[in-house]
Amino acid sequence: MGIERLKRLLKEKEGICLEFKESRTEMPKNLFESICAMLNRDGGDVILGVNDNGKVTGVDSSKVDKIVKEIVNLSNNPTKLDPPFILFPSVLEINNEKIIHIQIPASSQLHKTANTVFDRSSDGDFKISQSHQIAEIYNKKRNFYSEGIIFEAIRFEDFKPELFPKVRALIKSYNPNHPWLLIDDREMLEKAGLWKRDPHTAKEGYTLAAVLLFGKDEVIQNVVPHYKIDALVRIKNTDRYDDREYIQTNLIEAYEQLMSFVQKNLPDVFYLEDDQRISLRSKIFREVVANLIVHREYTNAYPCSFIIYSDRVETFNANNVNGSGPINPDRFTPFAKNPTIVKFFIQLGRVDDLGSGVLNVSHYIKHYSKGQVALFIEEPVFKTMVPKPVDFRIEGAIEGAIEGAIEGAIEGVTKRVMDKLKTVLSAIAEKEGERIPYYAEKTGLHEKTIERYMKQLKDAKLIEFIGDASQTGGYFLTEKGRNR
User: Fold this and answer.
1) CA distances (Å), origin 116, targets 81, 126, 134, 160
2) Helix-strand-coil split of the chain, %, nearest 5
3) 141: phi then psi, degrees, rounded to nearest 5
4) Which residue, among 366, 364, 370, 386, has the nearest Cα to 477 in the 3D structure?
5) pLDDT tens-digit profile of 36-66?
6) Does residue 76 contact residue 86 with C-beta atoms inside 8 Å?
7) How many C-beta neighbours within 10 Å does residue 335 have?
8) Element (H, E) at 279
9) pLDDT tens, 321-373?
10) What are the backbone dihedrals phi and psi of residue 275, each rounded to the nearest 5 degrees, phi first?
11) What is the DSSP string of 401-464?
12) Spatial CB neighbours of 276, under 8 Å, sequence gap ≥ 6
C-alpha cells in the first residue's frame, strides 16, 4: 500500500472494510477474528499501530519484524486460520512511527479461527454460530466465486509437472523465506487453497483455480473449452491484424507469453526513479497483464482480448461486476474477483497487492504517455485503455520531422552530417535512456562518431544526458527536442 492511500484511510472511520488496532509491542490477540471476518465478508484493510480514532500510535521498531513474521506464519497455519490464507503485511512509516498494514481480500472460501466462524459488520467482528447464517455466507461465495468450483475427477497427474520447479524459483526469488518452500507440491496446492472440501456436499478435490494455474493444456480445454487470450496488433491492418498471439495455456505461462508479446510490439520508455533507470513499459504492462489474468471470470465464454492500436492498448475480459463505470484511482476500494488466483500471483511477485494495478498504471502512465491517463471501466465486460507514447518506429512522417528539428536547431550542416545526425536522433527517439555503446550498435556508427554527433545534438538542446554518468544514466530527448 502506498503512503498516499494510507493517509486517505487514516482520515476515514472504522467500518466493514477498515479496522484500526493498537499494537505497540505484540500482535493484537483478536487480530485473527478481524482477518477471518474480512475474508468471509468483503475483504478490507487492517492497520496496526493506530487507535480507534485513526490516531497513529505506532508499533515499536524493535518488534515490527517479529509481529510481521508471526502474522505470516499464523495465516499459513490451519490451527489458527482454517483453511489457511497466507498474508504478507507491509510496513510503512508515518509521523516517524512504524505501522503495519494487512490487506485482506474477500476469500472464495469460508474461514474459521479457533474453530469459530466470524463475519463482519460496520460495528466490527461477530461470531457466527447458527447453521443457517454459515450457510448464507457459504452460498454467497459459492455462487459468486467460480474459481472455487470443485472438479472431483481432476488428479494431481493432470497438472504440468515442470510448473512446480518454476513456481518455486519465482517464489524464492521474491521471498527466500516463504513457508511454501518447505513443503511438497501437493501440500503447497492445499495451502494455496487450490484443493478444498465442500462442507455441505462433502465433495472434495482440486478447484477451477488449480486447473487454470497448473493444468496441462488439454485438461484446461476440457474444463473450460472457451478459454483463450487473443493478443492482436491492429496498426496497419485494423480490420484483421498485423501480428497475433493465440494463448491457451495455464495462467503462469500465459502471463509470460503475453509479456513477451508486449515486449515485441510496444515501445519502451526509460525513466529514472530514485536514480535507478526503470522500464516504464514493464512497470505498466506487468500490471495490465496481471489484472487481465487474475480478475477474469473464467466461466464466461466472452473472449478475452489484448489489442494494440497505433495510439493505445485496450483489453477486454468477462467480469463479475463490483460497481459500475470508470474507476477513480484516487478513491476506490480494491476487490478481488478471483481471490485465490490473486493470492497465488502475489506469492510469485507478479502482483504487488490488491489494487496495485490501477494505482501503479495511473502513476506511471503520466511518464510513459505524457499528459494522458489510463481508463479502467467496471462493467460486465471490464475494459482497460492505456494510451501509447509516440512510437517513432511506426510514425510515417517522423523522418521529415527529425530532419526539420535538426535544421531548425543546427545550421549549415552538409547532407552527409545531416544523415548521421538523423540516424543518431532517430535511435534516441526510438529508445530513450540508453548509453553510447547501445546507440553505436543500433546505428552501426563508431562510438567516437556517436560521441561527436551527441555533442552537436546536446549543444542544440535537442537531447540531454540524465543520471549518473558512470552507472545508470542515459540519453533522453529534451522538451525542446520532443516538441520539435
Assistant:
1) 10, 10, 11, 36
2) 40, 20, 40
3) -70, -40
4) 370
5) 999 999 888 999 999 988 899 999 999 999 9
6) yes
7) 18
8) strand 276-279
9) 877 788 888 777 778 889 999 999 999 999 887 778 888 999 899 889 877 89
10) 65, 10
11) HHHHHHHHHS-S--HHHHHHHHHHHHHHHHSTT--HHHHHHHHT--HHHHHHHHHHHHHTTSEE
12) 472
Return the pLDDT at 400.
61
Backbone dihedral region for residue 377 (phi beyond 0: left; psi -120 to 50: alpha; all else: beta)? beta
Q: Mutual orientation of helices 415-430 and 436-443 as an angle, nearest 10°?
A: 120
Query: How many angstroms separate the CA atoms of 245 and 182, rounded?
Result: 37
Domains parsed from the chain with CATH numbers: 1-143 (3.30.950.30), 229-387 (3.30.565.60), 398-483 (1.10.10.10)
Q: How far apart are CA 86 and CA 76, in angstroms?
A: 5
Work out the number of other CB atoms within 10 angstroms of the CB of residue 151: 18
3-class SS of residue 295: coil
Give buried/exposed letters for 349-381 (b at 16+ CB in 10 A, else e).
Answer: ebbbbbbbbbbbbbbbbebbbeebebbbebeeb
Query: Do the beta carbons of residue 58 and residue 165 sit within 8 Å?
Result: no
User: Before 83, cis peptide (omega within 30)?
Assistant: yes
Nearest to 391 by CA among 214, 236, 230, 169: 236
CB 268 within 8 A of CB 431: yes
Pairing type for strands 229-233 and 304-308 reads parallel
